[in-house]
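Ticket opened by: R.M.
Priority: normal
Category: complex prediction / small molecule

The reporter submitted a protein together with zinc ion and asked that the result be attached to this ticket for the collaborator who will pick it up next week. Submitted input follows.
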Amino acid sequence: MTERHDESAGEPASELDAEGWIGGALRRPSPNQDDRPAGTQIDLLVIHNISLPPGTFGGGWIDDLFLNRLDPSAHPYFAPIAHVRVSSHLLIRRDGALIQYVPCERRAWHAGVSSFEGRERCNDYSIGIELEGADLIPFTDAQYRRLADCTHWIRTRYPAITRERIAGHSDIAPGRKTDPGPAFDWPRYLDRSQ
Ligand SMILES: [Zn+2]
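Result attached by the on-call engineer:
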């Protein structure tokens, strides 16, 4: 397992701008985004984890995946996923660094086939946050701090995202997805995210 910190955790998150870019986030616009359906209220927050290859932290592979430049020959795990078009609004790295790929007003492609309280296509109405991590490896203090910080600013902008409308990917795609996984401490997160 490698730990490489090629960027500082940056300044604290702050208010979203009109397009939904969070202040303090490093912006790396992904081509994997489009408009939400007209009139959509943003009222769901989805928590994920990702690491590439799985269980390995550091490096630029997640950026590469979300920016459609992942080298399929760089690792055996990459070949079948290199051409999948996915993104998330935000990524929080192990050191708490915050990267934004899609402004929150736009639709990121993070949830896939999904349903929340009987309503399908969660990408339409949700914001996706990826934590660099794996299901069974504890997340870092810096990640919990940053996640609480981001959640505060997102909910300030989108108050329809109540505590009950913060879900894991595994909640909206059960049987298909397992993230953020049992190592994610939901009470710790939610108690900090008032
Ligand atoms: Zn996920």
